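STRUCTURE:
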C-alpha cells in the first residue's frame, strides 16, 4: 500500500512521448509485486454519450500500468468511481459503461469488493497472513529446544517484517480506520495465527517449568472471554502464557512503531541495538536458566 509510479515516461493523446521527473516515489521496477494485492487508484471520469465512451485517453493511460502489474503476477484492485452528481446514483453514470468499452462483464467489476470495508478486510487478512508466515518461519528455523533462540529469532523477524512492510504493519497494528469495524469472524483466525509463534514459545517455556511470572497480574473476569476466543482459534494455550506474550508483544510493538515513525534515533551500526537489548531484557525477565 505504498506510493508507486509506473515509470517516468508518459505519452500525450497525440502519441508524442515525454518524460517527467519523479522524485521520492518507487516505480514498478523497484519492488516485487508477484502474489501481492496492489491497490491502484484510477480516474475513470471519462466523457460518454449514449452509453459509449467518447474519449479513451484516460483509460489508455491507465492500461500500461495495469498490464504490467498483471504480467508481474500481481493481484490488481482498481479503486475508482464514475460520477455521482450531488450524491445521487445516475444509471447512465456507471462503471458498467467503462466495463463494456473494455470488454469486461459488468458483474466482474463488483465480484471482489462490493464495499470499501470488504476491501479493507481483505487487505488486513493479507497483512496478518504475511506477518504470520514470517513469524512462524523464524520460529521454526531454530531448534524447538532452544527457546531463547526462538524468541530472539521471532522478535528480530517481527521488526524486519514491519520495516519491510510499514504500510501493512500500520494497517493491522496502527491507528484504526475511521468508520471501519473489522468482522471478527473473518479477521480473527489470521490475527491469532500471526501471534501464535510468540505464544507457543512462551507456552513451551511454561511447560518446561522455565517461565518466571509468579507475580504476573491475573486477567480480570470480564476480559477472559478474549482468551477463550483465542483458544477456540489458536489452541489451548494457558492464560498466563498468552498474557506474558501480549506484554512482550506490547514492548516490541512500541519500539517498532516509534522506529517506523522516525521518532527514535538509531542505536548501533544498523539501528537494531536498542531493539535487541529489549529482547535480551525480556529473556532475562521471563526465562529461568535451564538446569
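SEQUENCE:
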Amino acid at each position: 500500500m505504498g506510493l508507486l509510479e509506473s515509470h517516468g515516461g508518459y505519452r500525450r493523446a497525440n502519441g508524442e512521448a515525454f518524460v517527467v521527473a519523479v522524485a521520492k516515489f518507487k516505480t514498478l521496477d523497484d519492488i516485487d509485486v508477484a502474489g501481492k494485492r496492489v491497490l491502484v487508484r484510477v480516474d475513470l471520469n471519462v466523457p460518454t454519450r449514449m452509453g459509449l465512451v467518447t474519449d479513451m485517453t484516460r483509460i489508455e493511460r491507465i492500461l500500461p500500468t495495469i498490464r504490467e502489474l498483471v504480467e508481474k503476477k500481481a493481484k490488481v484492485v482498481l479503486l475508482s468511481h464514475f460520477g455521482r452528481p450531488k450524491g445521487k446514483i445516475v444509471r447512465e453514470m456507471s462503471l458498467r459503461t467503462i466495463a463494456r468499452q473494455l470488454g469486461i462483464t459488468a458483474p466482474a467489476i463488483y465480484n471482489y469488493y462490493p464495499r470499501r470495508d470488504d476491501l479493507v478486510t481483505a487487505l488486513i487478512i493479507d497483512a496478518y497472513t504475511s506477518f504470520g508466515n514470517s513469524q512462524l518461519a523464524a520460529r521454526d528455523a531454530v531448534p524447538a529446544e532452544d527457546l531463547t533462540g526462538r524468541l530472539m529469532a521471532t522478535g528480530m523477524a517481527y521488526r524486519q517484517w514491519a520495516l519491510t512492510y510499514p504500510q501493512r504493519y500500520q494497517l493491522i497494528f496502527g491507528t484504526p480506520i475511521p468508520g471501519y469495524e473489522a468482522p471478527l469472524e473473518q479477521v480473527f483466525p489470521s490475527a491469532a495465527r500471526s501471534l501464535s509463534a510468540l505464544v507457543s514459545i512462551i507456552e513451551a517455556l511454561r511447560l518446561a517449568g522455565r517461565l518466571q511470572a509468579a507475580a504476573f497480574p491475573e486477567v480480570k473476569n470480564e476480559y477472559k472471554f478474549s482468551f477463550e476466543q483465542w483458544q477456540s482459534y489458536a489452541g489451548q494455550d494457558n492464560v498466563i502464557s498468552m498474557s506474558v506474550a501480549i506484554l512482550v508483544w506490547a514492548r516490541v510493538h512500541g519500539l517498532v512503531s516509534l522506529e517506523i515513525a522516525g521518532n527514535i534515533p538509531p542505536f548501533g551500526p544498523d539501528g537494531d541495538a536498542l531493539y535487541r537489548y529489549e529482547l535480551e531484557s525480556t529473556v532475562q525477565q521471563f526465562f529461568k536458566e535451564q538446569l
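REMARK: The chain has two domains: 4-110, 116-286.
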